[in-house]
Specification:
The protein has 354 residues and is of the alpha/beta class. The N terminus is likely disordered. The two termini are 23 Å apart. It has 15 helices and eleven strands. The chain is 46% helix and 15% strand. It has two domains: 184 residues, Rossmann fold (3-Layer(aba) Sandwich); 154 residues, Rossmann fold (3-Layer(aba) Sandwich), CATH 3.40.50.300. Strands 1, 2, 3, 4, 5 and 6 form a six-stranded parallel sheet that branches. A five-stranded parallel sheet has the order 8-9-10-7-11, sandwiched between helices.
Length: 354
């Protein structure tokens, strides 16, 4: 596992608790469907915990895992053919159901289960066939006191609308639907990424190390290189992965070189302000100098994540970020084709050659 993955999976969450908890049977889906779903969620900027009962030692769920379940918001159990043979999976599921029941009775955050039926039918999970029923009969010989709760949890989850994936259906399409549903429930905006360039994961790790999200200082990173080699795609992936850390205080300004020619910088300043303030009311900027002062006033008081894509003049950076000091914890990413044309750069810029 890369350092980047470690920051977003079970080795530690970036920016707080996990948002999504994946419960699955390792031998059935670990290296296939679950792995693809996990990375799709992470690339969308979602903090995901994936637990694998095959990699656990012992049979008793520890306090750390229980806290992870308790603190997650969405739960995705992936019901597969041998899911019910695992006492660990069934104990996870029971805790998940308890959490969602408790959240529905409270006035706090409403938690939700999004089940996926992988090569099994909902009737199997509802114990109407021998598939899961036989597994519970075997468990009953060793842990009869727990099986009653497991039966109740399985039946309760089956009543929730989920996705039924058979082998002859497209997994990629279903993963896309799951990511969209999760984003909708979490209300996270993310940038679509369709390109998958050779060597991109290594570059993602490089940029994440430079940004060092756990550091409280200001980090400004530049990504430069010729057109068409993936600078914007790289910036989108980083933006998605860090979005949940910054909440709604983030902005991705695309095609600045082209947009600044069409509408000067005023429209970009308005877009930036509306996004980081998270207001549907767009503040009208009479001119770029006023806009520079307003963005500077806002950015010196807010920890933000901003991507300035395809910059070709240092003046554009100055006009969009203002002349004030940036708030501690802020992260700025700039992509450009030629650093030689940039002047007036803020102090502290680090450049990564793409």
């Amino acid at each position: 596992m890369t350092n980047l993955e470690a920051g977003m999976s079970s080795d530690g969450a970036v920016g707080g608790e996990y948002q999504v908890f994946l419960s699955f049977r390792g031998p059935d889906t670990r290296h296939g469907f679950t792995n693809c779903l996990y990375h799709a969620l992470v690339d969308a900027g979602i903090r995901v915990f994936r637990d694998d009962d095959e990699l656990r030692v012992g049979e008793v769920i520890g306090g750390e895992l229980l806290r992870t379940i308790d603190n997650s918001i969405l739960y995705i159990p992936i019901f597969s053919q041998s899911y019910a043979t695992s006492k660990w999976c069934l104990r996870e599921l029971t805790r998940i159901v308890e959490n969602t029941d408790a959240s529905n009775r409270s006035e706090g955050i409403k938690k939700k289960i999004l089940p996926i039926f992988f090569d099994v039918e909902p009737e199997d999970v509802k114990l109407k066939t021998s598939s899961y029923s036989d597994a519970l009969l075997e468990h009953e010989k060793k842990v009869p006191e727990e099986v009653k709760a497991w039966r109740k949890a399985l039946v309760q989850v089956d009543e929730i609308k989920g996705w039924n994936l058979n082998k002859d259906e497209g997994q990629g399409h279903l993963i896309k639907l799951v990511v969209e549903e999760v984003l909708d429930n979490l209300k996270i905006k993310h940038k679509p990424v369709t390109e998958h360039l050779v060597g991109l994961p290594d570059r993602v790790v490089d940029v994440m190390k430079l940004l060092d999200i756990n550091s409280g200082d200001v980090r400004l990173i530049g990504i430069h290189g010729m057109g068409g080699i993936g600078k914007t795609t790289l910036a989108k992936i980083i933006f998605n992965q860090l979005s949940s850390h910054f909440g709604k205080r983030r902005s991705f300004l695309e095609d600045i070189r082209e947009e600044s020619r069409k509408d000067s910088l005023v429209k970009l300043q308005e877009k930036l302000l509306s996004e980081i303030i998270n207001s549907k009311v767009i503040e009208r900027i009479p001119d770029a100098d006023y806009g520079m002062r307003r963005t500077g006033e806002i950015l010196c008081n807010k920890m933000v994540l901003i991507v300035l894509d395809d910059v070709d003049k240092g003046e554009q950076i100055e006009k969009l970020l203002g002349k004030y000091s940036l708030y501690p914890g802020t992260r700025i990413i700039v992509t450009t084709r030629n650093t030689g044309k940039l002047s007036l750069l803020p102090e502290g810029f680090l450049w990564l050659l793409k």
